[in-house]
Design brief:
With about 625 residues, the protein is α+β, with helices and mostly antiparallel strands. It has 2 domains: about 180 residues, Penicillin-binding protein 2a (Domain 2); about 300 residues, DD-peptidase/beta-lactamase superfamily (Beta-lactamase, 3-Layer(aba) Sandwich). It has 21 helices and 23 strands. The strands form 8 sheets. Strands 12-11-23-22-21 form a 5-stranded antiparallel sheet, with helices on both faces. A 4-stranded mixed sheet has the order 2-10-18-19, with no helix packed on it. A 3-stranded antiparallel sheet has the order 1-8-9, with no helix packed on it. The longest helix has 28 residues. The termini are far apart.
């Protein structure tokens, strides 16, 4: 090791003692370590490899550039919106539905705002245990079971799920405080309808319900949890009453908590409507009908009061009524089940959707037809002795002893069946040939039966008029003379609605039938669109025949079957009716009228299902007319 200075010595090296080494002389600087090396200096890669690497790098850069172009230029707006969505949240600001007033400017309903709780599924805890704790905390505030919330979350298809409506104030405040620290909770203050139950307008106003999948698919502008009209005026005038919701865009933090309002689009309220309804008359009619229904145990009734001069509905009522307020919040299944299982069918609007045999309120049509077709003259009369015998069948008058000598006016006034049997089907004793079934049906159609009136409310039906062909095809029997007799007095297979019966009386009040309607005007901002009355029927019979029928209807109150209406402050004309529909049940009670006689203002129709022959329909009409013309 001493003889070899290039060998590294292990341990401590003391270079000054190395043999032959002097640091001052730089010994060894001259040594050529590469003296024995061989070869040449050349490239590390070959040219072909460099070219391949260049193209690989170029392709890689092109891919990066293409992707950047796609993300920033082609899809830039999309991802910008997503980025914005990460820091903003849009909330719907519900618009108020238009208000509805009666003809004198009295409110018939109003909008009341309540707190509503929504949960956003996308912000709920993913961990199942944390989710249970979260839902339990909310359920405890609302005093409901957590499973109720879970069921609503599962039933709702949208992320934003309505959990609870009409949250009480104290509970709403607790939820609002909880929402400050907990994402996914949203408490809104939204309007809902409140209907006035003292008016009995449930069938007329209808109600609102949640949008269905079909509504979302077929109607524009609706979202999950929206409400729209399902029945009544709320349905027919949905587009008018419905407002335009506003939108509030809010800046949120990482926990989705609101920080600032960025943009605000003001909601637009729906248009207000003024109806032809007289709220005081509606309330009084409801009071009278409800009292009589209770006193006489006759819970099923229908009534309508028309403006004789334009067809406007002053009042309409169908008993039993239902409380449409149960539909303004989350549907109470228990109450709804009670309604739909009630045998008296409270959801049925009997005025426009109930069909009944007319009974004697149909007789003015038959009388008018006989005069117009010259089957009889105004002087024609029969001797009523209690009924008519045809073969083995006896067709009775309502007075067993008969009504005596009867002309057309007395036949209407005292509702003499024998007279109408005769002019409808003929009688060898007084009249060889009557109108016959075909002519009676023709005039029924002329007066608007077996077709709808076009009233602006849903559910109206057309009724039914029988024919020979129908009976042969449906029942397998031919048409008998007795069938014509029954049709002549509004019995048998004839069916119509109370509104149609009111239309018949409307014609004899003024000589015209106006289309019945509820809306008087619609307010659109500062402008108001006023409804123009539409005449459906006029000039159906000659003036002289028209006057004869009117005189007979007036005689009904003077000396006939409705003498109790002489207590009304003005002269009333009308027609009573008792209609059999089932041999085992009490017949229906009818009364149709107009007043005052010389210058009619209103037409009134009352039906009492199974009211019998005690004149209960007359009683209801009399009490209403006494109040109406004395207020």
């Amino acid at each position: 090791m001493r003889d070899d200075p290039f060998k590294i010595r292990e341990g401590q090296i003391r270079d000054s003692r190395l043999l032959g080494f002097s640091k001052s002389r730089h010994s060894g600087d001259y040594l050529d370590f590469w003296s024995n090396a061989s070869g040449t200096v050349g490239k590390f890669f070959a040219d072909s490899k460099v070219t391949i690497l260049f193209f690989i790098l170029l392709i890689f850069l092109l891919i990066l550039w293409s992707r950047s172009f796609y993300l920033q230029i082609i899809r830039g707006d999309h991802f910008l919106n997503i980025a914005e969505g990460n820091r903003t949240r849009q909330e719907i600001v519900k618009a108020n539905r238009g208000l509805i007033y009666d003809r004198f400017g009295n409110l018939l309903l109003k909008n009341i705002s309540h707190f509503f709780l929504y949960l956003d599924k996308s912000d709920l805890p993913e961990n199942e245990n944390e989710k249970v704790v979260f839902l339990t905390k909310i359920a405890n505030i609302l005093s409901i079971e957590p499973k109720v919330i879970e069921e609503r979350l599962q039933a709702e298809k949208s992320n934003k799920t309505l959990i609870y409506e009409n949250v009480p104030y104290e509970q709403a405040m607790k939820l609002i405080l909880l929402a400050d620290d907990t994402p996914g909770i949203e408490v809104n203050f939204e309007p809902r309808r409140q209907y006035f139950d003292y008016l009995g307008l449930g069938h007329v106003m209808g109600y609102l319900g949640e949008v269905s999948e079909d509504d979302l698919a077929n109607k524009q502008g609706y979202r999950y949890n929206d409400r729209l009209g399902k029945t009544g005026l709320e349905l027919i005038y949905e587009n008018t009453l419905r407002g335009e919701d506003g939108i509030r865009e809010i800046e949120v933090d990482a926990l989705n908590r609101a920080k600032n309002i960025i943009t605000w689009h003001e909601p637009k309220d729906g248009h207000d409507m003024t109806l032809t309804i007289d709220a005081a008359a509606q309330a009084k009619l409801y009071e009278i009908m409800a009292n009589n229904a209770e006193n006489f145990d006759k819970p099923k009734m229908a009534a309508v009061v028309l403006d004789a001069q334009d067809g406007g509905i002053l009042a309409m009522l169908s008993l039993p009524i239902f409380d449409n307020n149960i539909f303004t919040s989350s549907l109470d299944k228990e109450k709804y089940t009670q309604i739909i299982t009630d045998p008296s069918n409270p959801l049925l609007n009997r005025v426009v959707a109930g069909t009944y045999p007319f009974g004697s309120v149909f007789k003015p049509v038959v009388a008018a037809a006989a005069l117009q077709e010259k089957i009889i003259s105004p002087d024609f009369s029969v001797q009523s002795t209690g009924g008519v015998q045809i073969g083995n069948n006896f067709f009775p008058d309502w007075r067993p002893s008969g009504h005596g000598r009867t002309d057309i006016k007395w036949a209407l006034a005292d509702s003499v069946n024998t007279f109408f049997y005769t002019i409808g089907g003929g009688n060898n004793q007084w009249l060889q040939n009557g109108l016959g079934m075909e002519k009676i049906v023709d005039y029924a159609h002329l007066f608007g039966l077996e077709k709808t009136t076009g009233i602006d409310i849903n559910g109206e039906v057309a009724g039914f008029m029988p024919t020979k062909e129908w009976k042969e095809k449906t029942l397998g029997e031919r048409w008998y003379l007795g069938d014509t007799y029954n049709l002549s007095i509004g019995q048998g297979y004839l069916l119509g609605t109370p509104l149609q019966a009111a239309m018949i009386m409307s014609y004899f009040a003024t000589g015209k039938v106006y289309q019945p309607h509820f809306v008087k005007s619609i307010k659109n901002g500062e402008q108001e669109e006023v409804f123009q009355p539409k005449v459906l029927l006029e000039n159906l019979i000659e003036k002289k025949n028209f006057d004869i029928i009117r005189e007979g209807l007036r005689e009904t109150v003077v000396s006939g079957t409705a003498k109790s209406l002489q207590s009304v402050a003005v002269e009333v004309a009308g027609k009573t009716g008792t209609a059999q529909f089932n041999s085992n049940k009490t017949p229906h009670s009818w009364f149709a009228s107009f007043a005052p006689y010389d210058n009619p203002e209103i037409v009134t129709l009352v039906l009492v299902e199974e009211g019998g022959d005690r004149g209960l329909a007359v009683t209801v009409a009399r009490q209403f007319l006494e109040w109406y013309f004395q207020r």
